Amino acid sequence: MAHGTKFRKTSGISTSSLQVCTDSREDRLSDLPDDIAHLILSFLSLKEYLILSFVSKRCRDLLLTMPSLNYDAPNRHLGRRMSRTRYMNFFDRILMHRQTNKINSLRIRWALYRDTLYRIWTWLEVAVKCNVEVIDLEITEGRRLQFIPPVSLLCCESLTSLTLNLNRCSFVLPFSTVGFTHLQSLSIKYVKIQNDSFCEWLSTFCKSLKELTLEHIEDVHNITIKISSLERFFMLNPIHLCHLNVLGDMLQIIHVNWRFDSPVGKSLKICAPNLKMLTWNGNPTNNNCVGDFIHLEGVQLFLEPKVKAHQNLPGVLHCIRMAKDLCLHEIITQALFEKGCLPAKLENISLSIIASGLHDDLVRAMVFLLHGMSNLKTLSIKYSSPATHKKVSGFKMNYWVSQNLKFIGQVEVVVIELFNGDNELELAKYLLRYGKKLKKMSILHSLPLPSNIITKLNKYRKCSSTVIAPQKK
């Protein structure tokens, strides 16, 4: 009874919950191999760890040898100091008694109060001593505080992946002369950068870095990433950024999501001769300098050009003309048509248009684009919500025939998602009748199709082509 009273005072868990655990005559967990038991325990919360630690010595030993630790405190306890202290003391004991048992991964989700900063430091330092490989730290509160990582973390030779989600806390480097020499993946999110030399520090000391993600970075106007080992770079929703320079011979994937009110004073420079995949969302800058990507395999451009940025679009298209797969949003497709922005020839063999509907304006823009794509083998038109309310008068098949599009003799695969029906079906008829090499056409739809639609389309198809109409789920 005394033990139950003590447990109730320290954990706040009712004795009825404990009774379920202690009165069970069959301890299935103790009979399992350690690796399977650890896998099961990895799905538990910190509160459940606390309960489990009172069940048996075997359970406590399993907690002390778990290769992956998840310190995700319940939200309702974060604002209560006594509850915070109770959970922190429990986690302190787990780490203290682990000694040097290896930690493969450590995930901490906690509020950064002044009385918790030292605890977080201590946990990170213990993890370093246990040769931790993966750390994921998420700060749930504490926007006005500074987070300074311990020097031991920067020098950790076993650490290969680090994720810092700081909830707009300030990130300050303790020294600019040490860095993550063995780190391969670094993700920094929702943070205010206080060091002017942060990017220079990354490029100088993170020599083994292969993947870098910067998301919602604040207070940095100029970012230059030049890391010789970097293969994948993600810049997502920066704030206050004016100039972005990305350079690297090993870069294969670049994803930029950057929006702003005006392109004036904004620039983007990419020098990555071996780039294979480029995704660019948001707004084009007023000054773009991107290399000639001869190894490019896929490009996704979901750009919304501002008035003064239209003139730079031909240069962007020229640089990606060799990409095998090109995916465009309807907004940039229409912008290219309206401003007459098109290089002499695009070598893309696959084109995807993401649109809210195949309305009349988009039909004209598509024709303009297809005139420069004589080698096109795959054409895909897919839906993105919300649905369009623009004019759809119905461009008949004869309109497409009159355009003398050269790609019609090369296209082999077509995917068309039905929006309002008329323009899509007329385009489908044209492709089926005049596509000399067409092998397969897929008509995607969310609602059941009228039975006569496929019958009508089959009248236009050649013997060598097939038409299928799978319904989207």
UniProtKB/TrEMBL annotation:
Q: Which Pfam families does this one have?
A: F-box, LRR_At5g56370
Residues in F-box domain copies: 26-74
Which PROSITE patterns does the UniProt record give?
FBOX
Q: Where are the transmembrane segments?
A: none
Query: What InterPro entries would the database entry show?
Result: F-box-like_dom_sf (IPR036047), F-box_dom (IPR001810), FBL13/AtMIF1-like (IPR050232), LRR_dom_sf (IPR032675), LRR_FXL15/At3g58940/PEG3-like (IPR055411)
Checking PANTHER family in the record gives: F-BOX/RNI SUPERFAMILY PROTEIN-RELATED (PTHR31900), SUPERFAMILY PROTEIN, PUTATIVE-RELATED (PTHR31900:SF30)
Which named protein is this? F-box domain-containing protein
Q: Which organism is it from?
A: Cephalotus follicularis
